[in-house]
Amino acid sequence: MRRRSATSTDLFEAPARAAHRVCGADEAGRGPLAGPVVAAAVILDANATIDGLRDSKKLSVAQREALAPRIRARAIACAIGLANVEEIDALNILQASLLAMRRAIEALDPPASYALVDGNQLPRLAIPARAIVGGDSTEAAISAASILAKVHRDALMRSLDALHPGYGFAEHFGYPTPEHLRRLRELGPSSVHRRSFAPVRALLGADA
After folding, report:
1. What is the helix (H) or strand (E) element at residue 130, kind and residue range?
2. Residue 6: DSSP 8-state
3. CATH value at residue 38
4. Which of 24, 103, 154, 170 has the fewest CB atoms within 10 Å of its CB?
5. What pTM, to 2 d.p., does this model score?
6. How far is residue 151's CA from residue 172's CA, in Å, rounded to a whole number?
């Protein structure tokens, strides 16, 4: 995994990071038409190396599923936060994603004293934080969070597939694939579809 140099861009050297309980935070599920957006926060243990951490999008399903329990077992703390479909529609997907990340960070036990957040915007937090574009590829704690968020959200979408059969949530996880769009047109939106997203809104007649 590519690492930034240890010059001025790094706030802490490894021992100081451990002392300050620096967490990484990332989300999964901004693009889908259905289901919640899920965030994870992770404080890694500097003495418990986890090989293979990288951006969850660059890992196979099997790799993510193998890494997730290792992260949970070896991390100092990890937590999940969600924003549901109603919150996504009320706030917009960006603000809902930030809300989910805030909930994940605030749920850490022991708590973090500093947060590294993937992206270019920060949630409102009671602790200092830094946004890092591409952080899921450069910061191990953010990589770990991206994996936990993706694995957790995929599991949720498989559960929603059983509750809302016919849409194929267990196959596309809510993303706007051609098959999902076809089924959405045939069945109409379910209660877990995001009504503020254009393909769903159009079917509800809001664009008329």
Report:
1. strand 129-132
2. S
3. 3.30.420.10
4. 170
5. 0.89
6. 14
What's the number of domains the chain is made of?
A: 1
Whether residue 4 lies inside any domain: the answer is no
Mean pLDDT for the stretch of residues 150-173: 98
Q: Indicate whether 159 belongs to any domain.
A: yes
What is the per-residue DSSP string for 83-127?
E-HHHHHHH-HHHHHHHHHHHHHHT-SSPPSEEEEESS-----SS
Task: Identify whether the C-beta of residue 172 lies closer than 8 Å to the C-beta of residue 89.
Answer: no
- The parent domain of residue 113 ranges over 14-164
What is the reported pLDDT for 160? 98
Q: Which of 164, 200, 207, 202 is nearest to 88 (CA)?
A: 200
Both structure tokens of 194: 């995001």
Answer whether the bond into residue 178 is a cis peptide, omega within 30°: no
User: Is the Cβ–Cβ distance between 111 and 23 less than 8 Å?
Assistant: no
In this predicted model, what pLDDT tens digit does every residue of 125-158 receive, in sequence order?
A: 999 999 999 999 999 999 999 999 999 999 999 9
Does 78 reside within a domain? yes
SS (H, E, C) 21-87: CEEEEEEECCCCCECCEEEEEEECCCCCCCCCCCCHHHCCHHHHHHHHHHHHHHCCEEEEEEECHHH
Q: How far is residue 3's CA from residue 138's CA, in Å, rounded to a whole number?
A: 5
Does the residue 72 lie in any domain?
Answer: yes
Q: Give 114's strand partners.
A: 22
